[in-house]
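User: Fold this one for me? It's Beta-lactamase family protein.
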Amino acid sequence: MHAYTKTKACLERLVNEHVVPGMSYALLDGTEVDQRVLGAASWWPQRETLQPNMLYDLASLTKVVGTTTALMQLVEQDRVSIDDTLTKFVPAWQDTRVTLRDLLTHTSAIGGFIPHRNELSADQLRAALLQLPVGPGFEQRDHYTDIGLIFIGYILENVYQQPVQTVITQQVLRPLGLTTATFTPKSKQCVPTELQPTGLLRGRVHDPKAAILGAHCGSAGLFASLADLIKFSQWFLSDDDRVLSAKSRDLLQTDQTPQRNLGRSLGWNLLAASDNSHLVSFHTGFTGTILILDRVTHQGAICLTNRVHPTQQNQRFIKWRPDFYRTFLNEAARIS
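Assistant: Here's what I get for Beta-lactamase family protein.
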């Protein structure tokens, strides 16, 4: 396999400079995979060496690995259309303008403050979310939030009459052979995240909305190992028609915003290849996870960290990400 020397150095700098406790990463080039696990799983309450099979809280990678993939299955089966309205599946929602496309591309402009949000029950939080208004900028700009994919989860629940996390497990995780990916991990298998007033989060989802909504949350909650993400990525980059057709996955690498001008696809964000010849699917997770997948060149990068350990006040990681994107895409272009 080609060396990806600069990309590896960029990744490993995070561990060497103590920006994150440890890292599991993989670089994909066709069928070849270069992977490494380094550093610590935790710094607190004591240093613990990171093990290759440990599970990460994927945070918002749940949106693309699970929820978007499951929704696109229904689109392929003509059971759902991207341009259907949310009210068709969730009658409690009142604004008939909002479509699945708006939700998936973060162009719905749904938002607002929910008082005491983290103290609500699951039913109370769902009711509050469904009362949020559509603000200015509807279909004119993209504003990333969890709400769109939570609502996509409600659509999946309406169709399948099961919790969205059960749907993802049955329709995506098991068919792709992601054997350790789970919404209900054992804590000792997991890389810990944040030290909170109630204690260290380990094996419990970091995202507060996901913690409340539980099995009914499609925006976060999935835990998985590097091996699982490699399997998913190899499938995504291939022409294997299990779970979702290659044609549908091609669509996920194109601008799907209402006017096709905001640089987001269905569920996925997009990066321009270094020569601007095409767009590349990518997504991040708040806990410190990154997935970049290029179906044109069959290359990809997976970066799994717990950058929120022991605290989420880690802006060095956030500032580092754009440099990593550029480094990988530039080096991938020279290799391909």
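One thing worth pointing out: The CA atoms of residues 293 and 300 lie 4 Å apart.
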